[in-house]
Amino acid sequence: MQVExxxxxxxxxxxxxxxxxxxxxxxxxxxxxxxxxxxxIDVIGKSVLNNxxxxxxxxxxxxxxxxxxxxxxxxxxxxxxxFDLLNTFFGKHNxxxxxxxxxxxxxxxxxxxxxAAAYTRINANKVDLNRDAQNLSQPESNVLRKxxxxxxxxxxxxxxxxxxxxxxxxxxxxxxxxxxxxAQDKACTITPNRKRAMEVIAVMNNALQEVIPNQIGVYDxxxxxxxxxxxxxxxxxxxxxxEAGHYENDYEREVTREFIYISYISSLNYIANSTVKxxxxxxxxxxxxxxxxxxxxxxxxxxxxxxxxxxxxxIAIQYQEKLIDNKIEFIPKIEKIENLDAFxxxxxxxxxxxxxxxxxxxxxxxxxxxxxxxxxxxxxxxIPK
Length: 385
Description:
Elements: H1 3-13, H2 25-35, E1 40-46, E2 52-59, E3 63-68, H3 77-89, H4 97-102, E4 103-108, H5 113-118, H6 139-151, E5 155-161, E6 166-167, E7 177-180, H7 192-208, E8 216-218, H8 228-234, E9 239-244, H9 254-273, E10 291-292, E11 294-306, E12 309-324, E13 327-338, E14 344-350, E15 356-357, E16 372-375, E17 378-381
Parallel strand pairs: 3-4, 3-5, 5-9, 7-8, 11-14
Antiparallel strand pairs: 1-2, 2-4, 6-10, 7-9, 11-12, 12-13, 15-16, 16-17
């Protein structure tokens, strides 16, 4: 299936009731009710706070694929794209009949419903579920583990979202989508199992290069058996980490949502219609590794106090995502005041040697939070449009 065809399907089947960054059980439950005609839906467990965790089974094929999203409650882009995908499966003339005939998908749309409701990475016990694969100390971790053992997947999709700080290599290009075929041993051996995951990632990278060239990265594959992906890979199930990242001015992650959708369909089509042996893994090795090269805003050439009087330096600002009245607000916070020549800003402001002042006309400092600054008597908004 060509990328332009996939983009057309996205426009037809995008689930319009899901938008922005705050996605919870309350948002998806009406959609689940609408899908019951086509999908087997069960409550497969409960969270720490006794909220239901839903499992969806779709397709009738022999190739089994397990997908879970919002293991980190504040990473919702991949969840939105899952419902876009489900809408597509049951739409007319979608070209995906072969996927549902060849594959059976088991989808956990929100593994961490408590974290989703609170908009936090962790669960209600303040545990990062993606570091609980061995201890299995949390109910949500046990739900995933039981599904893994009973469903016996041939592939796993571990669906996440990443911060705006990442570049696709040491370049001025945001890592809009990132992947990883996790290591399965401390030596990070490129095993036959990893090769199969790498081959699928290479297919997705090839599709995405058509729409976001040079904006796809991979993560460092240092082995951590406590991580779910590393554990499943260690048990010889090809596992793929998906990370939905930043696209220009897309703080709602609605543009990136489409790129994740493209990734889903291109990879599922490939798995459905190919025998994935891992022979074509080498293009994966050419994808640049993510680096932390971005801030949300950099104010360049600002007059600031220095050790020997006033000097010219740069000011880095990062948004803090805060849940306010059931909506995510982006609060600018000054992280650094130093030379930032090695970094890029998603937005850059030139202070032209003037002082940068706060709302009290005082010089800004590290940890300053406000929606604007004053430069040369001009009030400059910092929040995303």
